[in-house]
């Protein structure tokens, strides 16, 4: 029987310091949406891009480099398996006091050890997935703070990105942000759309994990592409500790596809004791995707994918892109009569997906696992990690980070768990997790001949 396998892979190995008495850290592999507003704050987020300091050795001279940016493109030739250091000092606003403080890195290649104000916080494997850390215990609101990263281009990185780039990749490749959340908050937010059998009416299913001491509620409002309010039969839900699943029926919404990229705006407010404490908005596209026999159906209609693979690539920036470059890529794909992009061989920036949502481009979001036990250069070892228990956390964590960050984007048509690799237990574990977590999308593996009789 023909098997259709759909997946994704990427992973990180992490640790965390103990939290101060009376405070419970938010989970280390949680995914967050940066709130547009947090009660009592003038601004809930601070972008830490720009000038950072860098040096090769612990006692070496500090040099100024740009973040985000690839070091090789700034004149610094790094070496495999040789650590180097980044640091950044900044003043955390005083109104962050009493809030949970989250530090986000959108991409650091490939192994990072994070310290804040001289204390080691955690480590992370994987260069192209977003990772976030509750650093409340380690920062000082209203004072100067210092972030330090020890980064290594690991020759055993499962993405093999330095191998097919033909030079060692390294550095902070994407944005760095610090932001605040109220103590009552939620994470791992996902907005899924489910259409009825006639592809007419829909249910917007919203899931998330709550953190609350009680007396908190989530309030939704939905506007259509023209900015008109959409009536909801229920818009207020009690925030429960742990798992929450809210269903919002919507009558005959405009559907999203590559030819009609209709986007609704879901505004989510969190209230405690009747007072709003945070708010954010998420764009939503009502669409359904499934594979029936040998056809891919979007909203019940067969779709042919016309497109290409895409790397984050620029002649002077390397693996770093900008908002302007991401938007130009999406526009040029559209102008070339393409409707599909494969993000080979790692997840894109979320910014690129926002443009794909807006312009109408289908996306295969691929995890950063490449050439496992196939085409690797001999000096990149070990190449056979597909069944390694030691490497299993890297596969799974990168997979989870990608899916959690991108689940709400209508442009993501399906997930890929790896590129041209020999299948094994670690890929299967990723497939199992994705299929259990996201039932709305197919998952693929780009080297199906190696799958054999594995479960699909």
UniProtKB/TrEMBL annotation:
Name the enzyme group at the top EC level: hydrolase
Q: Does the keyword Signal apply?
A: yes
Going by the UniProt record, its keywords in alphabetical order are: Glycosidase, Hydrolase, Signal
Catalytic activity reported: Hydrolysis of terminal non-reducing beta-D-galactose residues in beta-D-galactosides
The residue range of the signal peptide is 1-20
Gene Ontology annotations for the cellular component aspect, listed alphabetically: beta-galactosidase complex
The Beta-mannosidase-like galactose-binding domain is annotated at 80-156
Query: Which biological process annotations from GO are given for this protein?
Result: lactose catabolic process
The Glycoside hydrolase family 2 catalytic domain is annotated at 289-445
Q: Which GO terms describe its molecular function?
A: beta-galactosidase activity
Q: In what residue span(s) does the Glycoside hydrolase family 2 immunoglobulin-like beta-sandwich domain sit? A: 188-287
Name by which UniProt lists this protein: beta-galactosidase
EC numbers for this chain: 3.2.1.23
**Lineage, uppermost ranks:** Bacteria, Pseudomonadati, Bacteroidota, Bacteroidia, Bacteroidales
Q: Which Pfam families match?
A: Glyco_hydro_2, Glyco_hydro_2_C, Glyco_hydro_2_N2
Extract the SUPFAM superfamilies matched here. (Trans)glycosidases, beta-Galactosidase/glucuronidase domain, Galactose-binding domain-like
Q: Identify the species of origin.
A: Parabacteroides goldsteinii
Question: Which family is annotated?
Answer: Belongs to the glycosyl hydrolase 2 family.
Recorded hits in PANTHER family, A to Z, give:
BETA-GALACTOSIDASE
